[in-house]
C-alpha cells in the first residue's frame, strides 16, 4: 500500500506555551515510518517550540498571501518556513466559516504558499444541508469549491506539493456523537477529487484511533487530517498504528 500522510491539526490548542511544550514532549513517540509520513500543525507561535530532533514534519494552519508589509496580524509563508514549517493548511472550514474566507481568498493563499515553496494541504468539504440532498450533490459542491480554490493551478502543481483534504463539515468535531462519514462514501468522494485534481487526498472529520482503520485501509484515501484526537500523543500514535 502507498505511504499515507497523517496530519495533526492542533487548531487553537493548547492554551499556552507551557502546554504546547508538554504536548510536543507527548509527541516524542510520534514518528514518520515506512507506512506513514506525519505532519504536526500547531498554532504558528508554537512552531518555535518544536523539538529540533523530531521524526515528523511541521506545518502551519494558515498563511497570508502577501510576504510582508502593512498587514496587521497576518503571517506569511516565509515567516512560517523560517520557523521550520514545510506544510500549510489552507481553506479549513473553520476559517471559511468564522472568518468568511472565500474561495477567492483561498485561491490566493494556495498560490502564494506554493510560490513560497510550501507544501499545501487544501481543505474542502460540503455542509450538512448539501450532503442531506445526496452524495452527487455533495460532489458537485466540492467540485465547484476545488475548481475555484485551484483556479489557474489545477494540473500544474506537482503531487508532492499539493494535497487535498476532504472534510465534510458536518463530520468535523463530532467524535463524541460519532458523526463520521461512511468510509465507502468518503472513498468514493475522494476518488473523484483525485481524478479531478491529480493530487493525493486525505479524509478528515472526527478521525480517532477507533474509527481510523476502515478509512486508512481504503486505497483511495491517502491519509487523514486529525483535529481533536491529535491533542493526545498516545491517541495520535494509535491512529498511525492502525495502518496495516
Ligand atoms: P476533528 O477535526 O478531527 O476534530 O473533527 C478535523 C479538522 O477539522 O481538521
What does this structure look like?
It is a single chain. With 244 residues, this protein is α/β, with parallel strands linked by helices. The chain is 34% helix and 17% strand. The protein is built from 9 helices and 8 strands. Helix 6 runs parallel beside helix 7 (183-197). The chain starts with a strand and ends with a helix. It binds 2-phosphoglycolic acid (PGA). The site of 2-phosphoglycolic acid has 13 residues, from strand 8.
Task: Sum up the structure in keywords.
binds 2-phosphoglycolic acid, 17% strand, 8 strands, 244 residues, eight-stranded parallel beta barrel, alpha/beta
What amount of the residues lies in strands?
A: 15-25%
The shape, in one word, is globular
Please identify the structural class as seen in this structure. Answer: alpha/beta
N-end to C-end Cα span: 9 Å
Short description:
The protein contains 9 helices and 8 strands. It has helices spanning 17-26, 77-82, 93-98, 103-115, 128-131, 135-149, 183-197, 212-216, 233-241; strands at 4-9, 36-41, 57-60, 85-90, 119-124, 162-166, 200-204, 223-226.
Explain the layout of strands and helices.
Elements: E1 4-9, H1 17-26, E2 36-41, E3 57-60, H2 77-82, E4 85-90, H3 93-98, H4 103-115, E5 119-124, H5 128-131, H6 135-149, E6 162-166, H7 183-197, E7 200-204, H8 212-216, E8 223-226, H9 233-241
Parallel strand pairs: 1-2, 1-8, 2-3, 3-4, 4-5, 5-6, 6-7, 7-8
Helix pairs in contact: 6-7
Amino acid at each position: 500500500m502507498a505511504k499515507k500522510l497523517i496530519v495533526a491539526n492542533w487548531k487553537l490548542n493548547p492554551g499556552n506555551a507551557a502546554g504546547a511544550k508538554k504536548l510536543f514532549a507527548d509527541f516524542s513517540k510520534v514518528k514518520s515510518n515506512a507506512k506513514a509520513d506525519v505532519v504536526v500543525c500547531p498554532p504558528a507561535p508554537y512552531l518555535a517550540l518544536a523539538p529540533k530532533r523530531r521524526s515528523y514534519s511541521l506545518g502551519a494552519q494558515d498563511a497570508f498571501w502577501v510576504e510582508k508589509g502593512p498587514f496587521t496580524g497576518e503571517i506569511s509563508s516565509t515567516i512560517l518556513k523560517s520557523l521550520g514549517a514545510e506544510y500549510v493548511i489552507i481553506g479549513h472550514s473553520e476559517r471559511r466559516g468564522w472568518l468568511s474566507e472565500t474561495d477567492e481568498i483561498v485561491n490566493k493563499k494556495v498560490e502564494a504558499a506554493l510560490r513560497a515553496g510550501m507544501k499545501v494541504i487544501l481543505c474542502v468539504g460540503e455542509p450538512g444541508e448539501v450532503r442531506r440532498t445526496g452524495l452527487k450533490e455533495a460532489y458537485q459542491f466540492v467540485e465547484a469549491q476545488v475548481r475555484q480554490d485551484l483556479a489557474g493551478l489545477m494540473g500544474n502543481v506537482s503531487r508532492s506539493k499539493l494535497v487535498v483534504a476532504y472534510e465534510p463539515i458536518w463530520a468535523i468535531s463530532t467524535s463524541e456523537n460519532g458523526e463520521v462519514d461512511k468510509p465507502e462514501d468518503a472513498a468514493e468522494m475522494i476518488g473523484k477529487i483525485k481524478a479531478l485534481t491529480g493530487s493525493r487526498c486525505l479524509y478528515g472529520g472526527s478521525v480517532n484511533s477507533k474509527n481510523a482503520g476502515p478509512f486508512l485501509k481504503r486505497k483511495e484515501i491517502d491519509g487523514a487530517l486529525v483535529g481533536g484526537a491529535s491533542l493526545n500523543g498516545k491517541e495520535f500514535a494509535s491512529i498511525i498504528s492502525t495502518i496495516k
